[in-house]
Backbone:
């Protein structure tokens, strides 16, 4: 059901966005905006107009529903798969406006958001467990991508690698079923998928893999540069205090001269990718188009247009692969890399560097070409690119944008349970207390040996003043007339109620203590936590998550 609905929504969004482009820019239904030879300047004025409209919609949405819109990766990583349908509709509408008016973004983000939201909504209605809800969200998002490309394996592994963040036996059947259902629905509706129907020119030799690994290295650094430049542009726009409603409009004005130089900078670039490979563009033109398209994508995303870099990275990767093949030929290397093959490998490697998912992109190439040799070369280059990006940068584009907002997640793996398990939830309340000015003799009378393990001291204003293990009061190291505060430890180290379990464990490690008090902002005592109990709770929660992921809960 989720797969079928995801496929239906993907087809509908693609048709509406393409219809808007044909209406605004005046080209035929069978044509693509980025493949046009020229777009009149008057029609290019629609880009800033669309940007202004998007800015107003974004401003109104923030007034109506304040806060950030959560995407499928963030939902699965932090919120156990919970997505707001209203927020998802806003995200899809923003992406539709961005792509429909010609900005250099793809619709893939909207496809995944819609499919994931359908899965989340249905899972919430059925009151599914956390692990099952995350799986259903991943299945919906992956199914939408599969429908867009007419590639069920690509959709399934998009779900595993990018949206769910792991593989497990219990996930295979629902994700595969959703991906197959979405592709069948899209085909049944007569939708033309984002076909990248390229022909492998010649079989690969063993030495080819070495050169394609070099292309993977190049794609890794291109991907890192692209993501960093998007982040720098976004930061600059925010620091310039450009109003929310004006940002996309200003970005649209900057896109106009880029589109005048080459219409291939417009939209996602699907038509341009096929056109460049069919016409055999020269090296200078390839470099020019690469720079223009990369700049257009950076401007679009940095100035507030909504969308993804999925297809843009495929297009840029195909250009990068062709440039690489031409340079290898000019260098007089004892090998001939066909530009068509290099385009396919570069397409997958750069997409992995930006989006992630080595198997996802390798299966995309396999389902496109049905050639295992090029798919294997793509996998090799993708693994090289993925390794370098992980070691040198550490983020995919989706998690990088979350990092710019202050989040620390690096994948869709479920870490939300860590944040929800706070000191306030774990602490033991009703902790015995006494004034720090009382004597040790008074402490002994109130708390006989064996009655309690520890006492929390407070000052005259009932603020936390330290912890005293009961056994210390009977050790005989101090006079009975001494104040109880001489026995106190951890006077300056406390826990806040909103600290998550990872922060709590780190505090225990740094202080090398066995117990800590949980206090509020006024240092009033709320409860107590021991290191042994925290470690046990962490192990229990981790086991629960793993059992849920592997279908044993």
Residues:
């Amino acid at each position: 059901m989720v797969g079928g609905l995801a496929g239906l929504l993907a087809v509908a969004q693609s048709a509406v966005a393409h219809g808007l482009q044909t209406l605004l820019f005046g080209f035929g239904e069978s044509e693509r905006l980025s493949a046009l030879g020229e777009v009149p300047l008057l029609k290019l004025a629609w880009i800033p107009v669309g940007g202004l409209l998007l800015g107003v919609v974004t401003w109104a949405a923030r007034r109506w529903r304040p806060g950030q819109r959560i995407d499928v990766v963030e939902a699965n990583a932090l919120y156990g798969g919970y997505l707001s349908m209203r927020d998802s509709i806003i995200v899809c509408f923003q992406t539709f406006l961005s792509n429909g008016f010609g900005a250099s973004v793809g619709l893939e983000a909207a496809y995944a958001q819609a499919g994931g939201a359908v899965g989340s909504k249905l899972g919430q209605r059925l009151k599914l467990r956390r692990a099952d809800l995350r799986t259903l969200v991943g299945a919906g998002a992956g199914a939408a991508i599969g429908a867009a490309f007419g590639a069920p394996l690509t959709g399934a592994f998009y779900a595993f690698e990018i949206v769910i963040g792991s593989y497990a036996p219990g996930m295979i059947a629902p994700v595969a079923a959703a991906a197959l259902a979405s592709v069948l629905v899209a085909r049944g509706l007569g939708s033309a998928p984002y076909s990248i129907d390229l022909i492998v020119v010649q079989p690969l030799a063993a030495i080819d893999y070495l050169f394609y690994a070099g292309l993977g290295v190049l794609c890794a650094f291109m991907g890192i540069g692209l993501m960093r430049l998007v982040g720098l542009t976004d930061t600059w726009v925010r620091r310039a205090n450009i109003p929310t409603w004006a940002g996309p409009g200003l970005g649209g004005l900057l896109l106009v001269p880029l589109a005048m130089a080459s219409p291939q900078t417009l939209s996602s670039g699907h038509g341009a990718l096929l056109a460049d490979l069919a016409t055999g563009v020269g090296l200078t033109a390839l470099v020019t188009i690469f720079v223009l398209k990369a700049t257009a994508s950076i401007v679009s995303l940095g100035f507030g247009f909504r969308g993804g870099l999925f297809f843009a990275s495929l297009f840029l990767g195909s250009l990068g692969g062709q440039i690489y093949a031409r340079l290898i030929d000019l260098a007089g290397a004892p090998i001939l890399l066909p530009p068509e093959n290099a385009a396919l490998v570069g397409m997958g490697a750069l997409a992995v560097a930006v989006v992630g998912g080595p198997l996802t992109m390798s299966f995309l190439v396999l389902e496109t070409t049905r050639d295992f040799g090029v798919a294997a070369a793509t996998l090799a280059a993708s693994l090289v690119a993925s390794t370098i990006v992980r070691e040198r940068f550490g983020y995919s584009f989706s998690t990088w944008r979350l990092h710019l907002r202050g989040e620390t997640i690096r994948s869709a793996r479920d870490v939300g349970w860590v944040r929800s398990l706070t000191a306030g939830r774990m602490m033991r309340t009703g902790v015995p207390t006494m004034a720090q000015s009382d004597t040790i003799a008074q402490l002994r009378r109130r708390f006989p040996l064996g009655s309690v393990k520890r006492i929390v001291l407070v000052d005259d204003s009932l603020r936390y003043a330290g912890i005293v293990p009961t056994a210390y009061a009977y050790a005989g190291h101090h006079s009975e007339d001494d104040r109880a505060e001489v026995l106190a430890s951890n006077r300056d180290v406390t826990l806040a109620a909103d600290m998550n379990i990872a922060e709590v464990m780190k505090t225990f490690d740094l202080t090398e203590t066995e117990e800590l008090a949980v206090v509020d902002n006024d240092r009033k005592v709320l409860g107590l936590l021991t290191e042994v109990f925290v470690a046990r709770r962490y192990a229990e929660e981790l086991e629960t998550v793993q059992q849920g992921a592997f279908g044993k809960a």
In short: The chain has a mean pLDDT of 89. The chain has two domains: 2-404, 416-543.
